[in-house]
Design a protein that fits this description.
Length: 597
């Protein structure tokens, strides 16, 4: 009886236990089914589509276009930052260094992820996000740069351009380049089947990446940026990169919603980005564009037309609609033909849109003028917007290279060549200024536009003054008065410019005659306005005398750190200009700054 009851209880327990597990398995199946259905709604499937990877060609193409996108992004970064921070070697160093850091970290992390979870879906999702990020750079990048600059300009007092460029580059370009850094280790994982041929496969991937990088270097520089600009260049290469994950996922019918969202974001950036330029706050721009060398902005005002190659600093060229003096450094530079023994010929290195040429033509109509301008796009703008005289020949060439091949001599040589906001190093050395001196007639005068008033030990102006005086005073004798030196400078009122004059003397007593400057100007031009302007220049002239203590600051082709010196000068300028705003921020906080708007 007990055995019968025990067996009965055991049977009941087994039946109950069996029913319990059947129900649990049923619930688990329903949960799995529901989860699968949910994931299919989001991604339609989660398994890796293997068909497109049956051939390794697609993986090689992925490496090729990823390498292309990296270099295109690097060049695009330079053109995006240049209008705000210049395209100096310092900015280039920041860009290259930042991107290399991002790529290195991406290589390490991408390799770990590929070993941990060798699913190509993860890699192509990263490529997709990187592509969309790069596509959004034209839309939001300029606003990020201005925001970062606005915060830093009132919070730091040194190294503004370096910090602003570095932080902007970190925020805008590190995330997508980090993601692209994961591509190569991931592809190595997916393309390598055995150790027998792994070196061959890695070599092929490296070749694909290198060839793609070559195209990503040449195409933006020589084709897309000069033709369609930086913003569209970003969109072109981001679009090519985005095509890779789209083909991958859509061919396997996975991540459909994610793919559509990325396409929408890309399309939105493509439509909206071109509607605003680098200087998006400006409303009266006659032209905004780019060339192989510069960002270009033409502003049409009521009394003048202005060319700028940087949205934050300086005016590169100007034409006064009514003619006459400009109120800028060109007026002071007009002292050069009055200082010279004769005023029959002039060479302008850094022609720009021809401001100085127009003034020479107005006040010295018989003077033969020759211009050299490396950027042909600027020369075209001069014809279109600035009324450059059509009879003045302008050569499209580097100033120093052109001078080295020229056999003529001139009464006046104007050196006004700038790379954004710094003078090119090859046009700041003793070798260059010796070349200029050799191309001056006896009694001829060189005038150099020094873009920033920067004084003190180790300043860029001290270096330029030491360099030029060492060249022009070499073997020229010392029998001249303090009011008739060979080298002199004059600050330009209400600007950051300083003009330097250097004369190739007729004899051992000849020099820059301060006292006779206004009289010579009126005799040669019959212009009272110019004579008055030269009287003002006379009061601002300061002799520069070379001494042995200046030898440490002489610039040569081997050592001419003009970009570092220029950055210091800009820092001092920003510090001075932003001082009142920093004081308001310190005393009144953000509300005080906001009350100024």
């Amino acid at each position: 009886m007990n055995e019968s009851n025990s067996a009965s209880k055991s049977a009941v327990f087994d039946a109950t236990h069996s029913m319990f597990f059947e129900r649990m398995i049923g619930y688990r199946s329903k949960v799995i089914s529901a989860t699968t259905a949910y994931r299919k709604v989001l991604m339609l499937e989660t398994h890796t589509p293997k068909a497109i990877l049956n051939s390794k060609i697609f993986l090689y193409l992925t490496e090729f276009f990823s390498g292309m996108a990296v270099m295109a992004a690097e060049l695009g970064a330079q053109r995006l930052l240049a209008p705000y921070f210049s395209s100096s070697q310092i900015v280039w160093t920041i860009i290259i260094g930042t991107i290399m850091i991002a790529m290195a970290l991406g290589n390490v992390w991408g390799g770990r992820q590929a070993d941990k979870n060798p699913d190509p879906d993860h890699l192509y999702r990263r490529i997709m996000f990187a592509a969309v990020w790069l596509a959004l750079v034209p839309l939001v990048g300029k606003y990020i740069i201005i925001a970062i600059s606005g915060v830093l300009i009132v919070t730091i007092s040194t190294n503004f351009l370096i910090l602003a460029a570095f932080i902007s580059c970190m925020v805008i370009f590190v995330p997508p380049l980090f993601l692209l850094g994961t591509v190569t280790p991931g592809l190595v994982k997916f393309t390598t089947d055995s150790l027998k041929n792994n070196a061959t496969i890695v070599g092929r991937l490296g070749a694909c990446n290198t060839i793609g990088s070559i195209l990503g270097t040449f195409l933006p520089t020589f084709l897309t940026i000069p033709t369609v600009g930086t913003f569209v260049t970003f969109l072109i290469f981001a679009g090519i990169l985005l095509a890779l994950p789209l083909v991958y996922f859509l061919s396997g019918r996975t991540y459909i919603i994610t793919s559509i969202a990325c396409i929408v974001l890309f399309a939105a950036s493509a439509i909206v980005s071109p509607l605003s330029g680098f200087a998006f706050w400006e409303r009266n721009l006659a032209y905004e564009g780019e060339s192989e060398y510069n960002y270009l902005q033409v502003k049409d005002l009521s009394d003048r037309t202005i060319l700028s190659t940087n949205v934050l600093f300086g005016v590169q060229s100007v034409t006064m609609k009514a003619g006459g003096l400009t109120g800028l450094y060109y007026d002071t530079a007009l002292a050069a033909p009055a200082f010279a023994a004769h005023a029959n010929s002039a060479l302008i290195l850094g022609m720009g849109t021809g401001t100085y040429a127009r003034q020479l033509r107005e006040y010295y109509p018989k003077m033969a003028i020759t211009g050299v301008e490396i950027d042909q796009s600027i020369t075209k703008l001069a014809d279109r917007y600035f009324k450059e005289p059509s009879d003045i020949p302008v050569s499209t060439y580097d100033g120093r290279a052109w001078l080295a091949s020229d056999t003529k001599k001139y009464d006046v040589i104007m050196v006004d060549a700038y790379q954004d906001i710094t003078i090119p190093f090859q046009m700041s050395s003793t070798e260059f200024f010796n070349l200029v001196r050799d191309h001056l007639n006896p009694g001829g005068v060189m005038v150099v536009n020094m873009n920033m008033i920067s004084d003190g030990k180790g300043s860029i102006n001290e270096a330029l003054e030491a360099t030029i005086s060492s060249v022009f005073e070499n073997g020229a004798g010392t029998n001249r008065s303090a009011s008739s030196p060979l080298v002199a400078t004059a600050d330009v009122p209400d600007t950051t410019n300083r003009e330097l004059f250097a004369k190739k003397p007729l004899n051992r007593s000849d020099g820059l005659s301060f006292e006779s400057l206004p009289e010579t100007a009126v005799q040669r031009t019959r212009s009272d306005d110019l004579a008055d302007a030269m009287s003002s220049v006379t009061l601002r002239l300061i002799p520069v005398k070379y001494s042995s203590t200046m030898s440490g600051y002489v610039l040569t082709d081997d050592k001419a750190p003009v970009e570092v010196l220029g950055m210091r000068a800009i820092d001092e300028l920003i510090k001075e200009q932003a001082g009142p705003y920093r004081k308001i921020l310190k005393e009144q906080g953000i509300s005080g700054l906001m009350s100024l708007t």
